[in-house]
Amino acid sequence: MGTGTDLGRVRGLGAAKSGVGHWWHQRVTAIANLALLLWFVASLVRLPALDYTNTVGWLRQPVAAIPMLLLIVSVFYHFRLGVQVFIEDYLHNEGTKLLALLALNFYALGGAAAAVFAVLKIALGA
Amino acid sequence: MATATRPRGPAAEPPSRGSAGQPARGSAAGRPLSPHLSIWKWRVHMAVSITHRATGNAMAFGAVVLFLWWLVAAATGPAAYAFFYSIATGWFGVLVGVGLTWTLFQHMASGVRHLVMDTGAGLEIHASKTMATATYIFSLAATLVVWAAVWLTKGIG
User: Fold this and answer.
1) Helix (H), strand (E) at residue B71
2) CB contact under 8 A, B85 and A41
3) I need a surface site. Which of A56, B37, B56, B60 has the fewest CB within 10 A?
4) What is the pTM of this model?
5) Do B7 and B33 meet the contact criterion of CB atoms below 8 Å apart?
6) Could you list the residue range(s) of the whole structural domain that residue B13 is in?
7) ipTM (interface predicted TM)
8) Which residues of chain B are within 8 Å of residue A75 when distances are taken between CB atoms?
9) Which fold, A5-123?
10) Which residue of A has its CA nearest to B108?
């Protein structure tokens, strides 16, 4: 491809301005979500009860807390990427789109921070 | 992203009627018309495609909020968790729970379908329809199994 227009176009990263990164990250987190969410559902079903004692007792264990932290990062990043495409497809006004994407980023990052903090607080036992 | 709607001519309406009130010149010769949402026959692979987006967004704004409520309540203490638990195990909570379980499994199945199609496999019309139908069968069966287990082992539901 050399330094011609093909490579130039790739380096310019196309209309999305971020190349294939978005597409690829969505696939990577999708595969992680598949494993982590099947584990999550199976774990909850296998608990003897879902009351406070059982839930917190389960989350205190490293074998639960560590996958939960991974799940939070993967799920929140995945939905942030997915909703971004949803917004870009349906909001055509640049200002509205920008505000919606900002709100999405705050929502995803804020939510992930709250979830991570909750798991750590339980797991590290306050 | 969306399942391709190949021009195959109008399926739901007779070809003699134009969609915008103009005489359909091309259709008389059996030529394909340009895609128009209102005259396309729904097919299962189209339904799965839009369901994937709908379930994804439903989880991003529904399941995620409930997930946060559950985790933060557990981190806050027994009283906060008891309030969450009473709502979540009430009839409305269970209804939402069953709905979101189906939403998760449906998005999961159609997501795997997307991953398969990303490899270039399953794009033929017959394989595409079979896989699309399978996602609905899987999501309904998995939801049934999970909630049957929750009901049998925990008496919730």
Assistant:
1) helix B64-76
2) no
3) B37
4) 0.82
5) yes
6) 1-41
7) 0.89
8) 64
9) 3 helical TM bundles of succinate and fumarate reductases (1.20.1300)
10) A34
